Structure formats: C-alpha cells, structure tokens
Amino acid sequence: LEEAEELGLELAGCATVADVTKVRMYIKNFGEFFNDQIESAETIILSRTQLTTQDKIEKAVALLREHNARARIITTPWDELEPATILSTIESPDYLLTIDDLPEHEHHHHHHHDDDDDHDEHEHHHHHDHDDDDHDEDEHEHHHHHDHDDDHDEDEHEHHHHHDHDEDHDEDEHEHHHHHHGHDHHHHHHDHDADEIFDNVGVETPKKFDEAAVRAVLAELSDEARFGSVLRAKGIVPVADGKWLHFDYVPGESDFRYGPADYTGRLCVIGVKLNEKAIREAFGLE
User: Fold this and answer.
1) Are residues 168 and 187 in the same domain?
2) Which of 59, 108, 211, 215 is most buried when burial is the number of CB atoms within 10 A of its CB?
C-alpha cells in the first residue's frame, strides 16, 4: 500500500477470485492461506460458474458466506457481464434502493422538524427527482477493458497451488444445504422523528427465479397484514433462458422488463414495520 501511495495510485477495492468448482477443496487443502483471502475480500469473483450447476454455485456461495458474510459475490458468468459491471462492483458497490428512492409523497414529510412550529418555511421538502434512477445502473459503463472472456485464464492468478487431485465432485460430499440464504441487509432508517422508522430488507442470491412467481409476489406486496407497509421494491434477478428480470414496485404499480445481467441476483424492499420472514418466504428465499 505504501508503494502504491508513492506511485500516486489509489486502492479502489479488495477482490479475490475463486474457482466455483474447487471452493470446498481449497478450503480443505489450503486452510488459512485460502481462507484469509476470502475473509479479507470486499468482493469475491467466482470463476467457471458457466461450467457447473446452479446447485453447486449455491453450495459454493454458502461455504464462502461462512468465512465472509459481508462481501459481494459475483456469481454471474463473466461472459454475461459488461467489464464495467465487474469494475463498479469492486470499486463502488451500490444499493438497489435507498430512502431517497421512496416515492416523493411517501417520504418528504418525514423530514419536518415538528418542534419548530414557527419555522414551517424551513421544512425539508427535498424533491429528489428519482424517477429515472431505476435505470442508472445500466448506463454507467466505463469501458475498462478487463479481458475476462477466457475462463481458463483466471486459474493463473488463483493461488498458484493447483492441487487438482481432488475431483470437482468432491464438493458434493457434505455440503451445507442452506441454499438461497444469500447475502442479507436489514437496516432501520431513523429520520428527524424518532417514531418514523423505515426498514430496508435487501438480499443477494445466486438463486434462479421463476418469473411468474416474481410477478405474483409483487402483485401481493400491498397486503400490509402479511408483509408490513411496503413503499418500494426493486430487483435484478436471473430467470429462465439466461434472461435477467428487472422489476420495480411502488404501491399500486409494478414494472417488469428484461435487462443486462448483474453480478448476482439482488432484490430490495423498503417500507415500515416490514415482515422480513414473510418477504423472504414469498420470494422463495427460505
């Protein structure tokens, strides 16, 4: 790091590459040497995901999560990703939704200072025009030429200890069968009023979703008794035929479209007094 600073370089992120077909073997054979890289990484890039099954990808992610619960894990095959997507994932991870993405009429009044009755003119009506934000993530390609098309190349910089005497099927012996648990985010957002609390339920998962089921869930999100008060939902998830379904939800309106692949499946729900368990179950994540 000192040498980088002397050269005027800036550390943009900490990432490591792991062969999805050998995660279990590397954990077993290399122990601390391999685990330290996993535990220190902010982003874990899984290679060869196009050569294995969905089940093995999910098992590998579960194993990695045991050593790093917070890292972003790129599970999408590299040839389906734009180089800019990989780079932005490493350099500047974004959240699908933030409180600023709530519909304007839902959140601007939560910024009022209730104790300053004489200063109504100074209330914080932050009219953020977020209507176009939903598509921003698809438009910031920086054309950094990361040549990642040759999947065998990544083996050259993966620990240089290719003890391939364990066959790929080794990882099936006693895997951890907690698929779809993904990488969860659950945050409470306190605005000026202590009694105004927003919940943010976010999940990252390699799970392949059923498109009809996703559409059905969004049609039911208005059920406040079941889910809590859902104010906004957004997702980018893989579905059948290699497609990626992008969806957005505000009360009374849902939007679906096919779009570019993301580094893994992601969805986020923001609201008040959300029932996280019910939301996860509805999306098939339990």
Assistant:
1) no
2) 59
Residue 122: inside a domain, yes or no? Answer: yes
The span from the CA of 48 to the CA of 21, in Å, is 7
User: CA–CA separation, 245 vs 72, rounded Å?
Assistant: 20
Contact 23, 60 (CB under 8 A): yes
Alpha-carbon distance of 118 to 136, in angstroms, equals 39
Count of the separate structural domains present in the chain: 2
Q: What is the pLDDT of residue 74?
A: 98
Same domain assignment for residues 67 and 112: no
Q: What is the mean pLDDT of residues 205-216?
A: 97
pTM of structure? 0.68
Dihedral pair phi/psi, residue 204, rounded to 5°: -115, 130
Select from 227, 230, 250, 265 the least CA-distant residue to 133. Answer: 250
Q: Which domain holds residue 19?
A: 2-81+150-172
